[in-house]
Design goal:
Blueprint: H1 4-7, H2 12-16, H3 27-36, H4 57-61, H5 65-84
């Protein structure tokens, strides 16, 4: 004989505890994650995976078109990451 509670699916509260927990990311990990899942139609430059906050004005003034594209993509990723992920949910940088 089967009782009712044995055939009832688990409650949302029961399955919530079984969900994987998210691991905080740094902005560099966010760049790496997005870049690794994005198709680019040109070769990678040193600025694609670099923290855009470390790029100097002098470097920007000397960039090729592809370097500038990679730099601005990295900057967009970081800006979006910081705008959408609360500071307390980010890994220490």
């Amino acid at each position: 004989m089967t009782t009712h509670y044995e055939t009832t699916p688990p409650s949302i509260a029961d399955t919530y505890d079984q969900q994987p927990t998210s691991v905080p990311m740094t902005r560099l990990e966010a760049i790496e994650y997005i870049v690794s899942r994005t198709d680019f139609d040109y070769p990678e430059t040193p600025f694609r995976r670099r923290d855009p906050y470390t790029v100097t004005a002098s470097e920007i003034s000397q960039m090729t078109d592809n370097e500038l594209r990679d730099y601005t993509k990295a900057l967009q990723i970081v800006d979006t990451f910081e705008a959408t992920v609360p500071r307390e949910c980010r890994a220490d940088e």
